[in-house]
Specification:
The protein has 437 residues and is an all-alpha fold. The chain has one domain (2-213, 241-432). Helix content is 62%, strand content 3%. It has helices at 2-6, 15-29, 32-40, 47-69, 81-88, 96-115, 119-124, 128-150, 168-185, 191-205, 244-268, 282-298, 309-314, 320-333, 337-340, 347-362, 373-388, 392-409, 418-432, and strands spanning 75-77, 153-155, 161-163, 303-305. The chain has a two-stranded antiparallel ribbon with strand order 1-4. Strands 2-3 form a two-stranded antiparallel sheet. The radius of gyration is 21 Å and the shape is globular. The termini are far apart.
Amino acid sequence: MLERLFKVRERGSTIRVELLGGATTFITMAYIIVVNPAILAFAGIPVGPSTVATILTAVVGSLLMGFIANRPIAVAPYMGENAFIAFGLATLGIGWQLRLGAVFVAGAVFLLITVLKVRSWLANSISFSMKHSFAVGIGLFLAFIGLTETGIVTKAEAVPVKLGALGLPQVLAIAGFLVIAALLYRRVRGAILIGIAVTGVAGLALGLGQAPKAVMAVPFVGEYSLAPIALQLDIAGVLRLSFLPILLTLFLMGFLDTLGTLVGVGAAGGMLDEQGNFPDIERPMVVDAVTCMFSGLIGTSTSGAYIESATGIREGARTGLAAVMTAVLFAVSLFFIPLVEPLQHLQYAYGPALVAVGVLMIGSVRQIDFEDLTELVPAFVTVVMMLFTYNIANGLTAGIVVYPLMKLAAGRYREINVGAVVLAVLCLIYYLFGLPH
């Protein structure tokens, strides 16, 4: 039955290798169980239900990826998008119901352009350097959140920010980051999750925080009920002209994350064709779009394919059976939420993970063309606007607007395609009629 469903032998793998690969992917990305609810708490989404929603999204998304796309790629709420939902929209004064509505509608738009097969047109309208500048900006943004959450960087009066007081929590955070970095260097599976756990245990031993109240609990009831957040999204409120830039930002972030992840894990697993394209890419794209809509419905942020899936692929996983295995392990973790819940309230434990994710994402800076100012300037604008305005949308939209302007100024208008112009006009609406902040 497994052979018929997943074509394991046909793809040069075995059931044992697929199960091992799926388990490896789970261990590597399980930190999202701790980090995602902790970030979304700043949007007012309660942690208990948010944790269940995070895990359930990973279960459903990974199962869909396994059975529909038959790829060894796990799906879960994205890092970066969760920060945009929690922090990027904070100054708008809108409730989390409206933010979840934006997640759902962005997923619906993603699904529509995938079904209509305009994916490649839109993807090709954004230059290679610009795509990677998004990753760099989001990585630095996450790192900045991690530094402020841990108190290593704080607000100041004479200057925007300053070095915080180096008390015990900050020392633990620095040590936690170094532990994660060392484990990543040694390619230890689950490096980020191990770093969070080690730092949290050390803090508890030193009297910072509380130990778990229990090891297991029944999900979907009591404090882990989805009722407070599931189906509470506001879709009608999102369908306003002023909300268009927010939808565009969520859509582009999810779209580019998915595209980059699929190409990245495809290269790691030898899944790309001779032209470097991911064969039959529409199937995993559809899975990501549907899972994103599911995320908004049950109460969590934009979801999609996870780059950590590359760890399972390195173990030899080549089919959707690995993704199913990852989903099963996430489903099992639903019953062990009390074990990780204290870590969601310990900034010194999960903050270093955000900085570490930033380190992993900053590598994309090497893909930006520093020799061509028409590529470098829009990329630079993207990064600094994300970081210094504390808003991912500002960076994304500003960079996309500046890109064709730089090409025009250089007399290289032939390099501007219709898609780039359309995106620039839509982003310009953000500053003229939208909700810039």
